[in-house]
Amino acid sequence: MRLHTPVPVRAALATAVTAAVAVTPALLPISAQAADTAEISEIAYAGGNDTDFVEIVAEPGTDVSGWTVGTVTRGGSPQSGEHVTTLDDGTTVPDSGALAVEVPITNSVNSGDRADGSYGSSAFVVDADGALVDFDQIGGVVGGQGVVATTSGLMPEAVHGQEATPTGATAPAGQSIQLIDGAWVAGEPTPGERPDGSGEPTEDPTEDPTDDPTDPPEPGEVTPIADIQGTGAESPLVGETVTTEGVVTAVWSEGGLNGFAIQTGGSGGEAKAAGEASDGLFVYAPNAASSVATGDSVQVSGRVSEYYGQTQITVDSQGPVQLDEALEAPTPIEGVFPEGDDVREAHESMLVLPTGDITVTDNYGTNRYGEISLVNGTEPLFQATDVVAPGEPAQEYEAENLQREVVLDDGGSVDYTGSASDVPVPYLSTDEPVRVGAATTFTDPVVVGYGFDKWRLQPTTWLTGENAADEQPVEFADTREAAPQEVGGDITVSSFNVLNYFTTTGEQLDGCTYYEDREGNPTTVRGGCDARGAYDAANLERQQAKIVDAINTLDASVVSLEEIENSDAFGKDRDESLSILVDALNAEAGGERWAFAQSPDSLPADEDVIRTAFIYQPDEVQPVGDSAVLTDSDAFGNAREPLAQAFTTGEDEEPFVAIVNHFKSKGSGSGDGNVDNGDGQGNSNADRVAQAQALVDFANEQKEAASTDDVVLLGDFNSYTEEDPMQVFYEAGYTNVGKEFTDEQTYLFGARVGSLDHVLTSESLVEDVAGADIWNINSVESIGLEYSRYNGNVTNLYAEGPFRSSDHDPLIMGLNRAADDDGEPTEEPTQDPTDQPTEDPTGEPTDDPSQDPTDDPTGQPTDDPSTDPTADPTDDGRDDDQGQDDDDQGEDNDDQGDNGQGGDDQGDNGDLPRTGTGLTALVVGGGLLVVGAIALLAARRRAL
């Protein structure tokens, strides 16, 4: 795409503004695109402030003296007084019917918590009487939620509390967004001129023309669909008016797509190669899509354009014309759906029936947009740094990921938690879950599409929960497990992030704002106070019930907790929330099954409002001494300090020390080494490395204090398996149990699975590990099943039980601690070793992925203190810890995170097999070398 310099735009803008003041009224007709009243028609923001403008269209000669034009940031407030201007007396709309008003606009488009999809600043117009004329938002999703204006004194009261209308359009550098035929599109700025076109983007053709440019078709001549599509990423006929024919293969007259697909008669059946032309085409026909049906043979005429990367024509006023003679029906292309942009481009808008192994790799947007990301193979996509080293290896790995993902869509563009909340959401239910890692089988053909930077597979009609029984083109395997796998051992240790479990609710505090369900009921705290969890008792009850069910079913001897309320922040006993949770666990268990490790006397002076904790089963383990919190380390100024507690089974002479952690998240960072440098580790990597180093030192101190070498480090490290902070532990001799004993992951972010949560054992403790399992009850489930999200749509998605009780999955490890009566070591791990060790993820994405994951991730930030700098000066500075808005899928619910993290089998302890086969081999080998070596094995029991 050609970039335009700001100079001509600036000159045109100056001319347009000057002409507006001197123009005399003229009786000129308003074009069909304009409304009866004034409205915003163009927003230019993608250059410097000297080229920014907001354009108003109105009847030529309209007096706009005293009107106010301004812009607000994503936070809903003007960035400064310069971003609001009042028009001079005598200002009128020129003969062109368009008035460009120079006003700065913040050039920032991002995913966020106050709008659907990617969104940016918003522009408003208020007339001289103080009435709001228009308020439009850059980006977002048409029909979805928009930015809500604050009560800033910099703008008129008419804007206060108003919600901007999302345009759904964003502009590349040098372009603007323009209202054309009722739709917002990107194009070359036209200040002071009415944008013209068909309602589609007016992007320029690629810089390099084809060797053989396509001649424009003659009027009335039928142009084959393949000629319209061309063999490149864009049509060679963009901007031309053409006539073509085809068979209708899909109709989307409802749901927002407003069109239908046609395909050349008799085409299809065989897969195309990269560089070939597609035989399918999307026809944009907002007023005529309902006049056709699947199987019709039609002729259509209209202007060719590229809309969000998809070739289409906008049907003219005549609409589609039925052909007298039916065309041969096209045949769906059956086979493995191709990977890579070039070959997918060759199938754009054609019927396909994907076959072979296909796996769900993301369901984060399912409850909101009816989208499910898929990938060929038996595994989902992995976070790069969960598999390979950060830097170039991770970048190469992620580049291949991007070529593999495809979105199964719903044939619509609505928000099922917004304007379409009364329409049953497709794909989701409480009894037939769509889980990441689930095998997917296509039962009916779909149409290949492209939009919002992703390849899509569209059902042949708008799919909703009402027609799913007849129209849903896929089936999903149910991969739920009612309980974790048996991990062996005489005790078990687990880690569980409880997603902002706060017993101090928002309604108990002054100033708390809240998110709402579709009926306007409060759900979770949004801001304005220190609480981060449920807004009221009813929501807390639902949240607590799911957490209690999950922990009691997990049934570990020791459970570390992350993201539980630090009640001291509310003037209460620090352990109050922890005590309430334990009481609830015991009530459901029917006895005094659980206890908690009490807080130590010595605590950091400035703690976060969330904390870590330990609960345990006294019948299985007992605490030894008091707990301890790291209090003298600068490394944890932006994270939760580690908490240590020694435990014993009562039968072994030597205790083990467990240390729970919650490191700084990836969503924000400042200072050397803390800004995301693109290596896949996100923000604050240097801080997490420092925290890892401080933790190793703290663990050494706790080992000495407890007179043991046995240490378990566990919790939410906000680091994927192969990232720098984890290397600190490997180099210190710790073994990553999740990596070596399981092939599952604890978290989903950005359609990639990976483990942010880890259990690591010291060298002396590795031989005691009997097995491990990651119980995928949270990350792989739809966010719509959370306690605060279940009523976002008319389909009630709340169900009792452990599923989606949090956004992280618990990891449980079995340990052999008790000695036999004869003093000999216990038997080998109960998990039977396989003949071959479980294959670790390769350095390249597998052709056949197998496993599972929101934003957050449930979705949203949930942990860091509000000292981190904000993206916009108008933001309130706190991490969005409620996980409420689907757009801000945040890495680990702390801050909105980066989406390129991951890990592999590198590190000092990478030689242990996941199944424990290596341990068995050591024992067998010892028996072959020294007959009767039981005594030797006992002596070496803790020295692997």
UniProtKB/TrEMBL annotation:
Transmembrane domains' residue ranges: 919-939
List the biased-composition ranges (Low complexity): 856-872
Endonuclease/exonuclease/phosphatase domain spans which residues? 534-808
Q: Which residues form the signal peptide?
A: 1-34
UniProt KW Nuclease keyword: yes
Q: Does the keyword Membrane apply?
A: yes
Q: Which UniProt keywords apply?
A: Cell wall, Endonuclease, Hydrolase, Membrane, Nuclease, Peptidoglycan-anchor, Repeat, Secreted, Signal, Transmembrane, Transmembrane helix
Bias (Acidic residues): 201-215, 821-830, 837-855, 873-897
GO molecular function, one example? endonuclease activity
> What SUPFAM superfamilies does the record tag this protein with?
DNase I-like
Q: Identify the stretch(es) annotated as Disordered.
A: 185-236, 802-916
Domain (Gram-positive cocci surface proteins LPxTG) spans 908-942
Domain of life according to the entry: Bacteria
Q: Which Pfam families is this protein grouped with?
A: Exo_endo_phos, Gram_pos_anchor, PT
PANTHER family named in the record: ENDONUCLEASE/EXONUCLEASE/PHOSPHATASE FAMILY PROTEIN (AFU_ORTHOLOGUE AFUA_3G09210), ENDONUCLEASE_EXONUCLEASE_PHOSPHATASE FAMILY PROTEIN (AFU_ORTHOLOGUE AFUA_3G09210)
Q: What is this protein called?
A: ExeM/NucH family extracellular endonuclease
Q: Which organism is it from?
A: Brevibacterium senegalense
